[in-house]
Write a structure and sequence with these properties.
Layout (H helix, E strand, L loop, with lengths): L1 E4 L4 H14 L6 E4 L13 H17 L4 E11 L6 E11 L4 E5 L3 E2 L2 H8 L4 H9 L4 H4 L1 H5 L6 H13 L13
Parallel strand pairs: 1-2, 1-3
Antiparallel strand pairs: 3-4, 4-5, 4-6
């Protein structure tokens, strides 16, 4: 099975590889990487998260032939009725016919000073590195530090991919409108 992704991020690629391999045991899972699309914000907020995941999947779809096109995007979202923002990930899966599914990973609150910096336009990794003095927030993810090393970025990504893959486990879960 061939999967195309518009990313060069090794954490996202490894998460998609692992989830698809578990969902389709015995299948050879080949992932082709393409460049991310232009115009996706570095730090997506609210609707931009899912829009970015879809844009990544569609960019991969436009770049090569595959069985599935997967886009993963992380950002901050504010839930209705809640004053705080949650860091979360979205995954979009599109097939060759254009059918699509969306999944979200867990959401978690950031420390207030990080949240303020990100909402003001600073990328999460930059805000995190500046406030906490770490140098590898992009590789490990803020969640690694906030969870005392018990949760990693790959795990969050895998959850979003699993949720997006649910409808593909049965053809009845998808409709022609995505």
């Amino acid at each position: 099975m061939k999967i195309a992704m518009a990313t060069r991020n090794p954490t996202k690629i490894a998460a998609v590889q692992t989830v698809f391999q578990r969902a389709y045991p015995g299948e050879a899972i080949i992932i082709e990487q393409t460049d991310p699309p232009e115009g996706v914000p570095e730090q997506p907020l609210n609707r931009e998260i899912v829009a970015g995941a879809l844009a990544r999947a569609e960019a991969a779809r436009g770049a090569c032939e595959a069985d599935y096109y997967v886009g993963v995007e992380a950002g901050l979202m504010q839930l209705p009725g809640c004053s705080r923002w949650l860091s979360t990930q979205a995954c979009a899966i599109v097939d060759a016919q254009g059918r699509q599914s969306i999944g979200l990973g867990p959401g978690y609150e950031l420390p207030a000073q990080i949240e303020e910096s990100v909402i003001s336009g600073q990328p999460l990794r930059v805000a995190f590195e500046r406030h906490f003095g770490v140098e590898d927030a992009d590789r490990r993810g803020a969640i690694h530090y906030l969870s005392c090393g018990t949760i990693d970025r790959r795990e969050l990504t895998m959850t979003a991919v699993r949720m997006a893959l649910l409808p593909w486990c049965t053809e009845d879960g998808l409709n022609d409108n995505g």
